[in-house]
Design a protein that fits this description.
By secondary structure, this protein is mostly helical. 64% of the residues lie in helices and 0% in strands.
Length: 438
């Protein structure tokens, strides 16, 4: 925007209604990754701050990114503070000087606003998950529970340059911290309640030092090159065993599926199945139902033996697979029909799971109609028709080949075959008559 345009726009907004100004601010673009440029010119920011209108203040706090100029909004009421903490247009929210105090003393709403903000700095997220500020355990559990719902933890960043690599490495740190919780925190019901939110996280593990050779020596580096895959596999196996044993539901708990321990194990398996093919097979075949439910909810569905899974786990399979987003992809329209058939609980004669299926299908279809739905795309339908035509042509060729082979037999051999068939029929009739008379 040119300087003269900024001047005109500032004057126009001064004379606009608060509702119109809020709508204008809501349309501001997000800030770039590194925050090199603010999304609202300073002259306009100052003009709107000068209005001291509660709705305009709320819009600035919610959508503008010039933190230095927006500092006065922090003291203009709790709603403005929440809007600033939840502002996802820019990463400046991480620079709030009161953030340390907020982690220690903030309200549940304030903590939720900041910890679920997708632009919160990775260091602050890692701090909340790892308790680097040594807060009381109940406060730590609250911070971790909220931080694990941040969408940053559901993906990694692509990188080609050094700066991008640095960003990707920093972005990955809270993800690593989340998975270390399974190994580091006390296996209590309160922590299991926190960990059951890990199912949607990106599954990424770094080898602990105890699984590494001495990489400072040439021999150690050579050993690493030879054994890297085996070391990763050993750590994965050990981690599955640790989760299964450490987060086992206490024996005194009667209904395991009402306990957070069960769902903490299921969450681990769900995330692992989504990203790690080797671990996916391990939890799929595991004796622990929680692991299998995690597999059904997380692993990509591609030509699954649905009936086999249903025979093993019944409605537990159906309940879990209805949470799997890949079930509702158009490519899996056949699997959807089979799951919908299985979802009818014949023992209780109700269809509430079919209702779950329909609700989930509509939710996913609304997000991306091209990807999700219960009918094949025109391209898939054309490919299927082509495959069916090819199969029909193959069967026709086989029939024609058999007919030609039969026609090529000598007449005596064909007559002999007919004679044997007639004789066999007579014998069969006599046997039936003899049994009836007896």
């Amino acid at each position: 925007m040119q300087p003269w345009e900024v001047e005109v726009e500032a004057e126009r907004l001064r004379h606009s209604s608060p509702d119109a100004i809020y709508a204008y601010l809501a349309g501001l673009r997000p800030q770039g990754r590194r925050g090199a440029e603010e999304n609202l010119p300073r002259k306009i920011t100052d003009a709107l701050l000068g209005l001291r209108n509660p709705l305009v203040d709320l819009g600035l706090a919610r959508f503008a990114t010039d933190f230095e100029r927006l500092k006065p909004l922090w003291d203009r009421g709790p709603a403005c503070r929440l809007a600033m903490l939840g502002n996802s247009n820019g990463g400046w929210v991480s620079a709030v000087e009161r953030l340390d105090q907020l982690y220690a003393e903030g309200t549940e709403e304030e903590l939720e606003a900041i910890l679920t903000n997708p632009k919160l700095g990775s260091g602050w997220l890692e701090s909340a998950i790892s308790n680097k500020r040594d807060l009381p355990i109940e406060r730590w559990q609250t911070l971790a529970r909220l931080a694990l719902t941040n969408t940053q933890l559901t993906h990694t960043l692509e990188h080609d340059t050094w700066n991008e690599f640095t960003d990707a490495y920093d972005h990955d740190r809270p993800i690593q911290a989340a998975w270390r919780l399974y190994e580091e925190v006390e296996p209590t019901a309160a922590w299991a309640d926190v960990l059951q939110r890990c199912g949607r996280l990106y599954f990424s593990l770094r080898l602990p030092e105890s699984y590494l050779p001495d990489l400072k020596t040439e021999e150690g580096r050579a050993e690493w090159s030879r054994s890297v895959s085996a070391r990763h596999a050993r750590y994965e196996d050990d981690l599955v065993a640790l989760v299964a044993e450490r987060w086992r539901t206490p024996e005194e708990c009667k209904d395991e599926q009402l306990q957070p321990f069960f769902w903490a194990r299921a969450a681990f398996a769900e995330a692992a199945s989504r990203r790690n093919a080797r671990l996916s097979k391990i939890v799929r075949d595991h004796d622990d139902l929680a692991f299998r439910r995690g597999y059904y909810a997380g692993a990509p569905i591609r030509e699954w033996p649905l009936r086999e899974h249903f025979q093993r786990d019944g409605m537990d399979f159906v309940d879990a697979v209805l949470w799997n987003p890949t079930l509702f992809e158009r490519v899996n329209y056949r699997a959807q029909r089979e799951v919908r058939s299985l979802a009818r609980d014949r023992e209780r004669s109700d269809d509430f799971r079919v209702g779950w299926y329909k609700s989930a299908l509509e939710r996913w279809r609304a997000q991306d109609p091209a990807k999700y739905g219960d009918e094949p795309t025109p391209e898939m339908a054309a490919a299927e028709l082509k495959a069916q035509q090819a199969e029909a042509a193959r069967l026709q060729r086989e029939r024609e080949t058999e007919q030609h082979a039969s026609a090529a037999l000598p007449s005596s051999r064909r007559s002999g075959r007919v004679g044997w068939l007639i004789a066999g029929g007579v014998i069969l009739a006599l046997l039936i008559l003899s049994r009836c008379s007896a």
